[in-house]
Amino acid sequence: MEHFRVVFQPDDKEVSIHRGATLLEAAGQAGIVLTTPCGGKGTCRKCMVELRPSGRRVLACQYTVQRDLAVAVPSESRFYEHRILSRGLDRATEVQPTIVEKYRPSAGSGDILGLAVDIGTTTVVAKLIDLADGHCLATQATLNPQVQFGDDVISRINYARSEAASAELRKVILDCVNTLIAGLCAAAAVAPDAIYETCVVGNTTMNHLFLGLPTQQLGVAPYRAYSVEAQDSPPADLHLHINPAGNVHTVENIAGFVGSDTTAVALATDVDSVAGTTLVVDIGTNGELVLATRDHLYAASCAAGPALEGARIRHGSRAAEGAIEAVVIADGDLGLDVIGDAPVRSICGSGLIDAVAVLLDLGVIDLTGRFAPAATVRPRLPQALAARLVEIEGQPAFCLAFDAGTSVPKVVLTQRDIREVQLAKGAIRAGIRLLLKKLGITEADLDSVLLAGAFGNYIRPSSAIRIGLLPNVPVERIHFVGNAAASGAVMLLLSEACRRRAAALTRRIQYVEIAHEKDFADVFAEAMLLSP
User: Among 505, 526, 3, 5, which residue's Cα sits nearest to residue 260?
Assistant: First the structure.
């Protein structure tokens, strides 16, 4: 299948994507979140971009890629740049200068910078922000080094049973943030001493480990947080390499398994002022849900596990060079989008969701996730697809990519891989259904579904609906909001007004312990099926 390069400016981000994909899809693969309130139908005209060098302006959601392209993305078409640098600062104009002026005596006429950090179970994202105008100077992300002690929060809680083990977990995450600080400062050519204010969000376990708070109570019923309060700490107490006169602000948690990252998401997506019924889905190892109406705010956590981030998958990986990030059926075979336009090495979460959807469409697997007998399926498939039905260690599998120039499988999906996807998507979908039940409504009553998380921006909505990961609603009701936790952290970094609003939000949100709902087992079993 033919692929083309698309370069986005001024980000200088390049992706390789299949012919016929929209510029909106290409932007998503580049990690650029565009404003699409109409859901990509082309009616709102908010995702306008400019083709270079012609200067022609087109709608990203409607323009399809048929050749190599260079595309300029204006600030007004970017969801969070518009939101933070316009709406966010407009609301905070009278209070924002106090953050800067608080440090002016120490800084003199020098830069006064801030740091926004989102500590995820799998990934840590940090942004270096100019506190004078809110512009992002640099962004860096890395694997959370705590994964060596377990790839989910329960594993890390169990590891941290002793004081020494807990201190070890804390040290590696603090070292990680310091490494990100050094990288950000090098990229922006500034000194760490120019960073005066830091805002940190994360799930409750990550928050507690970062602050050195007890975590054992998080692992046993009723799963209570040691603290849900915001805290301000001197950098020296956390051994962070920023200006010693600065401050480290950690945001309010909501409950034991819904942390300050969800608070930041709720703030960034304006869930407290929605007109209709809105569902926010933040997909990660510890998936979070927020259901909002004019009168109610509910939140829940789903133990999705790390499968959708590439872990526990035979040839899975994070979104790295050589990872399959999209899978389509084209010309009687598969078409693959590969990160970095490099030789295929693995498959990441977005490609995994696509691949399972494709296997369903081909009849290779059924709604229960079981592989159909190859002898039954092979005659119905084009020759190229039939050749992808293989056996690995005596078990059926499907080959997504072969070693170059050979018939040796390079990247395959096994029965166990399918089960891991089912467990992850079943946890998320069950949580959604049980939250909706709290309000006595169905998925059809959802006016919008906001897909958050660094990973969420890369998902193809049609594939996510096909396998039953997301609610079965019209695709135009699904909107990408990117890494809303990191964007919320920036808003909280910049604005005292946003911090007050976040505190009010945490008091309004009602936490629902999904696993304790009386019909959880039945709902989860049904949600395991690979059906819309």
Answer: 505
Strand partners of residue 199: 116, 249
- Identify whether the C-beta of residue 431 lies closer than 8 Å to the C-beta of residue 519: no
Q: How far apart are CA 502 and CA 483, in angstroms?
A: 17
Beta strands in 435-499 (DSSP E): 448-452, 478-482
More confident residue, 189 or 94: 189
Q: Within its chain, how far is the Cα of 470 from the centroid?
A: 14
| Type and span of the H or E element at 114 | strand 113-119
C-alpha dihedral (63, 65, 68, 72), degrees to nearest 10: 30
Determine how many CB atoms are found less than 10 A away from the CB of residue 288: 28
How far is residue 20 from each of residues 13, 17, 25, 322, measured CA to CA in Å? 20, 9, 10, 21
What rounded mean pLDDT belongs to the chain? Answer: 91
- Rg over alpha carbons for the chain, rounded to the nearest Å, is 23
pLDDT in tens, 298-328: 999 998 888 888 888 999 998 889 999 999 9
Task: Look at the block and give the residue holding tokens 């790390």.
Answer: 306
CATH class given for the domain over 3-77: alpha beta
Please check the confidence at residue 355 and state whether its pLDDT lies above 60: yes
Cβ partners under 8 Å of residue 339, min gap 6: 15, 29, 319, 320, 321, 322, 323, 325, 348
Contact 22, 63 (CB under 8 A): yes
Domain locations in the chain as residue ranges = 3-77, 81-263
> What's the topology of domain 81-263?
Nucleotidyltransferase; domain 5 (3.30.420)
Whole-structure pTM value:
0.86
- Distance of alpha carbon 138 from alpha carbon 129, whole angstroms: 8
Give the pairing type, strands 448-452 and 278-282. Answer: parallel
Q: Which helix (H) or strand (E) holds 492?
A: helix 484-494
CA distance 491 to 136: 12
**Amino acid sitting at position 141:** A
Sort 168 into a burial class: Cβ within 10 Å, 0-12 / 13-18 / 19+. Answer: middle
